[in-house]
Design goal:
The structure holds two protein chains of two kinds. Chain A folds into two domains: about 190 residues, no CATH class; about 120 residues, no CATH class. Chain A is built from twelve helices and eleven strands. Chain A is globular. Chain A is an alpha/beta fold. Chain B has two domains: about 130 residues, no CATH class; about 140 residues, no CATH class. Chain B is about 30% helix and about 10% strand. The longest helix of chain B has 15 residues. Chain B is of the alpha/beta class. Chain B has eleven helices and eight strands. The chains are: A alpha/beta, B alpha/beta.
């Protein structure tokens, strides 16, 4: 699609004017937590970060979400009005992750209205990675620092200016409408972008080999390596909650007399409660079964059901695991 | 020191004294070491010990001693473990609370010089790191180098550590461990704030929580088979990360630490959103010391005050408004 140039110092003005008709999220930092915050001209936008601590998935799939509220017989749906939204400057891996979430929340049998309504109202503007982070391994998953999957528009940071490329019709429409600060790119801009991307890709040398991983795991449910792989896992949910593709949730009711609400909250396969049956039986009673589930789900069941591994190589679980249980090492070990 | 550790562990395997040894090995990220489980003598060279061995390994121990249903005579393994001062205190707690049988544990103690808290390096993504005597040298992802004094990066718990040698051990490597100790004043300063300010601080801190339970999972004291927040019948707390729910969780978890927390810093290190948990757990450490003259994890014999009743126990606080 079309490529344009905008000066970086014009971006704030552009976002400010867009914020009149869109709810905009940008990468920022508050109380030392980097995540996507609602746009505020006072807040600094992060340009050089590798990845936010909390993935952008929380915008389309919030940690807690009220599905509906009720008082006596009256039910109020909480999903009724979703404002038009822009997620600005998300990394390509997080944008890629949305395409995977779509596969789960939009199947032939089930369409999840809560996620889908949000996604439909959202325009995703990604920011290519000039210098990838130390734990990035996106190139292992048919993507890369300039991967366009899931993005409506992708930005390339060229220092003083941004190269802006529309990826979808929806993205092109927005750019055409917001056009006054854009100009056409010179060949030098394109060359400069290509050079930066080449060096970025080199920095992410393919680190994990997933070529035959699914087939290997097909035969590996009872493999011996599960006995040792999980050993240092603490059983917390850092890896799953910070994962841009993990999408499991729990639904509960909060009720007080005749008033209440039904909510859904993130849940993690790493918690024992996750699979505890009403009978008291737990099919995944120990760390071993729970760790196996996480790996199998990402690298076997999802490829089987949705034709893609549920990992985009963002590296969050690698960096934030309290015991440095590195999923890249786990894959290496399984590969043998 | 590491030679001594490896030698001791090798000997333990050679003499059939242990089935498994829990120590540290090289991590996959700069300035990170990671827990490892050694099961044979040939592997002892994987073991490392330095300023980046930050995890409290004793958290893994109760897993080895879970009774299986209908098992009359459980065959429990002999487990060797590397502990420093604070993690050694955690271990004492696990013995006293009968989560781990003393006779099945072989303790290799190491006097600790303090560990580095890399979270103190703010605003820089560490792409490379090395230690050079008292300096920590890092490179960010653009290759820019920066040097820090190791002392400046010492974990807060190590700065105020008064117990660098494990109180109970079967083997102890040479060395004195860290001897300088600067008392932690965080609680004193906190107490000077008004009630509203204190509440606001607590609220601000816990509102960051994403309920990943890394604090619980990394804590050797959190060995409950079913945590109070996981109860569903009755459900004692909401499961959202709304501030009232997370407060309930944190207040519950912190209070369960009274007379048990040894200030090992595992929860603080594990927390991905850097909640200042220590301020609150340390308050309880100080209170238990003032009310009962007790410090957790220092002796196997001393009775834990909150599971013991004495007629002359201090009772004033019960009648305070």
């Amino acid at each position: 699609m079309k490529q344009r140039i905008i000066k970086k110092n014009k971006v704030m003005d552009l976002l400010s004017s867009l914020s009149e008709s869109y709810r905009i999220y940008v990468a920022g930092e508050e109380k030392e937590i980097s995540r996507f915050y609602e746009f505020n001209p006072e807040r600094e936008i992060l340009w050089d970060y590798s990845n936010t601590l909390i993935p952008a998935k929380e915008i389309l799939f919030p940690q807690n979400q009220t599905l509906y509220e009720y008082r006596d017989q009256d039910i109020t749906e909480s999903n009724a009005k979703i404002p038009d939204t822009i997620i600005f400057g998300v990394r390509p891996c997080d944008a890629h992750a949305f395409t995977l979430m779509d596969k789960v929340f939009d199947t032939q049998e089930f369409q999840d209205p809560y996620y889908l309504k949000r996604h439909k109202a959202t325009l995703i503007i990604s920011l290519a990675c000039n210098i990838p982070g130390i734990a990035c391994f996106c190139t292992s998953f048919n993507s890369g620092p300039d991967g366009e999957k899931g993005s409506d528009i992708i930005l390339h940071d060229l220092g003083e200016k941004l190269l802006v490329k529309s990826v979808t019709e929806k993205g092109e429409e927005l750019l055409a409408k917001a056009g006054k600060d854009f100009s056409d790119p010179a060949q030098t801009d394109i060359d400069s972008k290509n050079k930066i991307m080449e060096s970025a890709k080199q920095k992410i040398s393919p680190q994990v080999n997933i070529a035959n991983l699914k087939e290997k795991l097909d035969q590996a449910f009872d493999a011996d390596f599960w006995d040792t792989l999980h050993r240092k896992c603490l059983g917390c949910a850092v890896c799953t909650y910070l994962c841009p593709t993990c999408h499991c949730f729990d639904i509960t009711d909060e009720t007080e007399k005749e008033v209440g609400r039904r909510i859904r909250c993130w849940d993690s396969c790493q918690f024992p409660l996750f699979t505890l049956h009403a009978s008291g039986h737990n099919p995944r009673p120990t760390y071993k079964e729970r760790m196996r589930q996480r790996i199998m789900h990402k690298f076997n069941y999802c490829p089987e059901n949705f034709d893609h591994t549920f990992c985009v190589g963002c590296g969050r679980c690698v960096i934030n695991c309290p015991v440095n249980l590195d999923i890249r090492e786990v894959i290496k070990e399984i590969n043998g | 020191m590491i030679k001594e550790i490896r030698q001791t562990v090798k000997q333990l395997f050679d003499q059939n004294n242990i089935d498994i040894f829990i120590g540290y090995t090289e991590g996959t990220l700069p300035l990170r070491k990671t827990p490892c489980f050694i099961t044979k003598a040939e592997d002892v060279d994987k073991l490392v010990w330095d300023s980046f061995c930050t995890n409290n390994l004793t958290v893994y121990l109760p897993r080895f001693f879970v009774p299986k249903p209908r098992e009359k005579e459980p065959k429990w393994p002999k487990v060797g473990i590397l502990v420093s001062g604070c993690t050694g205190r955690s271990l004492v707690g696990l013995f006293k609370e009968k989560q781990v049988p003393r006779e099945n544990i072989v303790i290799v103690g190491v006097p600790c010089d303090g560990v580095v808290d890399i979270k103190k390096i703010k605003g820089i993504e560490i792409n490379e790191g090395s230690e050079n005597k008292d300096a920590i040298i890092i490179k960010d992802k653009t290759g820019k180098e920066k040097e820090f004094k190791k002392d400046d990066l010492l974990a807060d718990i190590c700065v105020s550590c008064s117990c660098s040698v494990p109180p109970v051990h079967d083997y102890l490597t040479k060395g004195k461990g860290r001897v300088t100790m600067v008392p932690y004043t965080g609680v004193k300063e906190f107490e000077k704030m008004s009630r509203e300010e204190r509440w606001a601080y607590f609220e601000e801190q816990v509102s960051k929580c994403i309920r990943c339970y890394a604090c619980r999972a990394s804590c050797p004291n959190c060995w409950c088979k079913l945590c109070f927040v996981d109860h569903t019948l009755p459900q004692w707390t909401g499961i959202t990360n709304n501030v009232s729910d997370v407060m309930f969780y944190h207040i519950g978890r912190i209070f369960h630490q009274a007379g048990r927390c040894v200030d090992c810093g595992a929860c603080v290190a594990a927390c991905p959103v850097d909640i200042d948990l220590r301020k609150f757990t340390y308050k309880l450490i100080e209170d238990v010391k003032v009310f009962y003259g007790y410090e957790a994890g220092l002796s196997l014999e001393e009775l834990p005050p909150l599971s013991t009743y004495k007629p002359d126990d201090e009772q004033e606080f019960m009648t305070e408004p």
